[in-house]
Amino acid sequence: MPKKGFVNDVNITLDGDCTMERVADLHALLAERCAALTGTPPSAAGVRVDLAQVTGIDACGCQLLALFLEQLRRLGIAACADGAGAEIRERIELLGFCTLFSGEHQQP
Length: 108
What we know:
By secondary structure, the protein is α/β, with parallel strands linked by helices. Helices cover about 45% and strands about 25% of the residues. Residues about 1-5 have low confidence and may be disordered.
């Protein structure tokens, strides 16, 4: 299961791989965080998913993170995923998730 370090309720640090092999654990973690944030007033700072310690990411991991961020945005909570190293950033860009992770993506 990915290790997690919550600085507070709005900062989530992921560690290790965010890949298909670990997507069930990642889903459980993100679902827990989403449930905890539902019904709370949006934070002025928003939710930040720190990817600095992520060592691998694939399309499944990107899709799950994108869905988590979009759900928070639907709840009126600003959300982004950032801090990834160069290799992970390149992978996210190659898979087409940069805009969704940056928080710049607007809902139609």
